[in-house]
Amino acid sequence: MRGMATPALVVKVTAGRDDAERCNQALTVAAAAVASGVPVSLWLAGEAAWLALPGRAGEVALAHATPAGDLLGAVLAGGTVTVCTQCAARRGIGEADVLTGIRIAGAATFLAEVMADGARALVY
């Protein structure tokens, strides 16, 4: 589904290690949707932008939850993952820094996905 033009579900997560429960909830919903065959676009914003870097999702630990790295991997395997342009810039994250398959894009791309016919958006 990578590169899909019209996602059915757009999930934006703004939390990372600072709020592991909220972060894991967003990743769980996105991964479950991918596993169900739903076209998913996951957006990493705010502190969640750090998840785009190798090994960083493993730093989000939450008891009784699927590891964040596994969830992110599932979304990467079947959907799209995007880091907010401004969030990446504020953290010094560039295209060469992120995991393979993750893109950096801005508000216009997010808006286009959210406004697509049939799309639903969740923000965590």
3D architecture notes:
The protein is α/β, with parallel strands linked by helices and 124 residues long. The protein has a single domain (9-123), classed as DsrEFH-like (Hypothetical Protein Ychn, Chain: A, 3-Layer(aba) Sandwich), CATH 3.40.1260. Helix content is 34%, strand content 19%. The chain has four helices and five strands. The protein has helices at 20-35, 68-78, 85-90, 107-115; strands at 9-13, 40-44, 80-84, 102-105, 120-123. It has a five-stranded parallel sheet with strand order 4-3-2-1-5, with helices on both faces. β2 (40-44), α2 (68-78) and β3 form a beta-alpha-beta unit. α1 (20-35) runs parallel beside α2. The longest helix is centred in the first third of the chain and has 16 residues, at 20-35. The protein is globular and about 35 Å long. The two termini are 23 Å apart. Residues 1-5 have low confidence and may be disordered.
Quick synopsis:
The protein is an alpha/beta fold. The protein has helices at 20-35, 68-78, 85-90, 107-115; strands at residues 9-13, 40-44, 80-84, 102-105, 120-123.
